Amino acid sequence: MLELAILGFLYEAPLHGYVLRRHIAALTGHVKPVAESTLYPAIKRLEKAGLLVRATEPGAVAAPRHVLRLTEEGRRELRRRLAEPAQREITDENQWFVLLAFLRHLEDPGAQAAVLRRRLAFLEEPTSFFYDGDRPIGAEEADDPFRQGILTIARATSRAELAWLRDTLASLGDVGR
Amino acid sequence: MLELAILGFLYEAPLHGYVLRRHIAALTGHVKPVAESTLYPAIKRLEKAGLLVRATEPGAVAAPRHVLRLTEEGRRELRRRLAEPAQREITDENQWFVLLAFLRHLEDPGAQAAVLRRRLAFLEEPTSFFYDGDRPIGAEEADDPFRQGILTIARATSRAELAWLRDTLASLGDVGR
DNA sequence: ACGCTATACATCGGCCACGATGTATAATCC
DNA sequence: GGATTATACATCGTGGCCGATGTATAGCGT
């Protein structure tokens, strides 16, 4: 997820680590703060994999900056990760949001629609959080207000996202199944 | 998060690993499947910490079962973790939902309300996913439909949860700030 | 007869994330 | 004048999570 965010932001413009960090903090930081000690090793991994290169520039106000720029391979890799996301990136809202943030970099509307359809299929599967044996328990019959809350909130989110997905798929010219 | 789920389910009744796993899968599995190779080491950690004990029973249909039962210390630890959640458990919806699922085990409504108030404070903070410099970018002006979607969905979720939080706080007899 | 699925546990290696800590400089606040 | 904050990088150790793999037994379909 972190690597996807790095590739996504650098796809738009070369950045140095510090600015990159602030972008990532804005995108996911309120939910899951990104530690510097996670970001810098991640940058190193991507560099080692040949997906980005560093150029050292004298620092504007402090230490010298390492300006990070995606290689052509890095640009291909971002598009690949966007087009073929892992199932976790479809199901986990945190990861899904990161993917959505950069989905515009897939130039083919059909490929974009295909990704949205995977999310749609996931949301259309019936899922409950609690079961009585095999029978799913609805929000009305949950035995405490907190579990009711989970079901209520999840349902509201799901409804909003389904509406948005269907609208967006339609405007992408997707003909449905 | 996993440990909290284990403690939470065992607080209600002793279970063996396999059933515990199915409960956890129902609670969080559609978003983030729980691997057996994560569950069993987690159980071991909790056992080593003195929070639960195992009793081996002959297996009903297969291998012998290890029935897991919380110790008094384990029960105290669950209540402590519920009453004093880490900030991540407040901000990350996945973790927050697990916490909510077991909040009923805090017997004091005041303590329950205090936890909900922390989530309320978090949701009331203004947060945007994207910035133009320091200025947050709203859903209307986001430059692509996918980023618009993120903002739209997040807003819908937030609105639903805020309504539920205020209702529930009121019914817990919370007088507000 | 054979394979598949469910029950029921367990280990191992690798990767990744995080907190703590370190090293500088420059600006701002009190 | 001293402390704090922001900029800008980096390492290290701990520990969690995961995929792959292993070991059994029992039932069910074909």
Automatic annotation (TrEMBL), chains A, B:
Membrane-spanning intervals of the chain: none
SUPFAM superfamilies referenced in this protein's UniProt entry, alphabetically: Winged helix' DNA-binding domain
Domain Transcription regulator PadR N-terminal: 6-79
PANTHER family: CONSERVED PROTEIN, PADR-FAMILY TRANSCRIPTIONAL REGULATOR
Record protein name field: PadR family transcriptional regulator
Organism: Streptomyces misionensis
Taxonomic classification: Bacteria, Bacillati, Actinomycetota, Actinomycetes, Kitasatosporales
